[in-house]
Amino acid sequence: MDVKSMQVTAKKRMEGYCRVCPICNGRACAGEVPGMGGTGTGEAFTENVRALARIKLNMRTVHDGLEPDTNAVLFGQQLKSPIMGAPITGSGINAGGAITELEMISGIVEGSKLGGSLGWIGDPANPSMYEDGLAAIRAAGQGIAIIKPRIDQQEILQLFKLAEQAGAVALGLDLDGAGLITMALKGQPVGPKTVSQLKELISATSLPFIVKGIMTPDEAIKCVEAGVSAIVVSNHGGRVLDHTPGAADVLPAIVKAVKGKITILVDGGVRSGTDVLKLLALGAEGVLIGRPLIVAAYGGGVEGVQAVIEKYTAQLRAAMILTGCKSLKMITADVLFKE
Predict the structure, then answer these.
(1) Domain 43-57+81-89+120-292+311-325, what fold?
(2) Which sequence spans correspond to the domains of the chain?
(3) pTM
(4) pLDDT tens-digit series, residues 118-130
(5) Spatial separation of the C-alpha atoms in residues 253 and 259, rounded to whole Å
């Protein structure tokens, strides 16, 4: 799959919803929510990209690390890459609907698998879209399901059960969706969760439990207290709260607070394998990508998503060679340039 040709196709199919900019930084689509942009001024989206761009790397070439190992083990799965497909929904409302919800999420889940990684599914207000995600997991034989933080705990548990039956390898809550008005308008109000509420949900499943949308050390510590298996440092792609810092800016403090006690993942503004290296060097153990995979699914389906995952993984491998890292564990803060 030629990635440039894929982007040309995606641009045609997503006309009016995504410009497929040469650099996907949120400037052209600021405020376009629904759509592909960031909420309000769009600063939370653009700051994700800027935060990564500010990080510089130390180049090291006097070593014997010719063939770096990008293998990772996450949620009991042996992966060829730590780069995963983020939970995405809303093909019609956000990307124009030139492909169906099932085609989009199947592309992400199956394409991530073929790229040696894991695809995640999301949970919108429309139940049929969640079923599309579950169908993608069933077809791929793997995947992760992330549920909106509905106020009704029993409703969440019912959705967890469906994910377990579909063959999900992990599940959890999209807590950064706690303020989504659209969910309430659809009769499914959402909100924040207490530690005790998280414990109730965790006790109801045997699968690893993930909380997505952690942006401060104190909330990461609360997740540890609740018994959460993993967190995703994320501001929901800048789509829920304007003027938040970039994920890469808050990651170091969160890592300092909970590293070794919980699996730390991150998303937001990742546009290359070099960006992945930066986030791993800051302490993350895995990275999720969103918008680039929507474009890939629209431009090339399963093969398009696979191509992007493989491209980013190849870029990560090249960056590891040029920073002296033989394995993911060797990617530490020593890789990062400090003035």
Answers:
(1) TIM Barrel (3.20.20)
(2) 43-57+81-89+120-292+311-325
(3) 0.96
(4) 999 999 888 999 9
(5) 10
